[in-house]
Specification:
By secondary structure, the protein is an alpha+beta fold. The chain is built from 5 helices and 6 strands; from the N terminus they run E-H-H-E-E-E-E-H-H-E-H. The structure holds iron/sulfur cluster.
Length: about 150
C-alpha cells in the first residue's frame, strides 16, 4: 500500500509522466484481479455500510462473515485459494459498492512506475490497452489512495 493521496502527482513537477498521452483501460470483468493470489482488500467504514446495505444485512453481520483485521486495518477475507470472498461464479457480488482499492485498479502507483510495469500488469489484466483512453489527469485522480487513516 502506498502513501499517495487521491489526485496527487506521482511524477516530478514540470516533468511529464511516461503516460503523458494517456492510457487505455476497460475492465473485461475476467476476475483475474479478484482471484488466485493472496492479498488484502482494504475497506473503510462507509464502504462497509454501503456494502452491507447492498447485501441486505447489518454491518455487524457483514463484518463477522467477511472481514478480518490486519495490523489494525480492515480487509475482506479470502478463500484458501486466494480468491476474494466477494467473488463467485457470477463475478463480484458487491461490484456497485466495491472498495476504492478495486475501483481504482489498475491505476495504482505500483503499476504506473514505468511503461514496463504497466505492460507487465497487462499480462494478467486483459483490460489494459483496451477501451477508454484515460488522460493524465484522469489517471492521477485514480491513483491508489492511502487508506490507513480512514
Ligand atoms: S484483471 Fe483487469 S479486466 Fe480482469 S476483472 Fe480485473 S480489472 Fe477487469
Amino acid at each position: 500500500m502506498n502513501n499517495s493521496k487521491p489526485g496527487k502527482n506521482i511524477h516530478k513537477k514540470g516533468k511529464l509522466p511516461w503516460y503523458k498521452d494517456g492510457l487505455r483501460f476497460e475492465c473485461q470483468r475476467c476476475g483475474n484481479c479478484c482471484r488466485g493470489e493472496p492479498g488484502t482488500v482494504w475497506m473503510n467504514k462507509r464502504e462497509i455500510e454501503d456494502t452491507s446495505a447492498l447485501l441486505g444485512i447489518s454491518p455487524n453481520q457483514f463484518a463477522k462473515e467477511n472481514l478480518r483485521v490486519i495490523n489494525g486495518r480492515i480487509s475482506l477475507l479470502e478463500y484458501d485459494n486466494g480468491d476474494c470472498i466477494m467473488y463467485n461464479d457470477k463475478g463480484c457480488k458487491i461490484y456497485e459498492t466495491r472498495p476504492l482499492q478495486c475501483k481504482t485498479f489498475p491505476f495504482w502507483k505500483s503499476n504506473l512506475r514505468n511503461a514496463s510495469e504497466w505492460k507487465e500488469q497487462g499480462k494478467t489484466c486483459p483490460g489494459i490497452g483496451k477501451g477508454k483512453l484515460y488522460t493524465v489527469k484522469e489517471i492521477e485522480s485514480r491513483l491508489r489512495p492511502e487508506l490507513s487513516n480512514l
